[in-house]
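Second opinion, please. Please look over this fold, written as tokens:

===
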Amino acid sequence: MGYRSEVVFACTADAVPTLLTQMEKSPALKELLFSRTAKKLIGDYDSEGSYLFAWDFVKWYEDDPGVQAFNEMIEKIEEKLDEESFRFVRMGEESSDVEVEGWGFENINIRRSIDY
């Protein structure tokens, strides 16, 4: 079965060319973004031209070629633009397993609650 995470990534229109360039270099990244997502909003997430990708119950392992290419894409976006041009949030099964990168899209965050 494996360890699963919930993941969301959003980027501004300025970051989209870098995303597309990296995607063309890596079929694994293209598959991760366009085949393995639970939800995607292309060009109309929060602002004109912004993208959002969401994965539910995904195996987000660092040795996965798609995840490796995704991390390289984030590095390229940071080099060319800045951390305000994207937001990456990963929430693992354990309550302390949380990863957040980027300062854009402050509405993307983690909220945990107990429902009964």
User: Anything to note?
Assistant: The first helix runs from residue 16 to 25. Strands lie at 5-11, 39-42, 51-58, 86-92, 98-101. The first strand starts at residue 5 and ends at 11. Helices lie at 16-25, 27-34, 65-80.
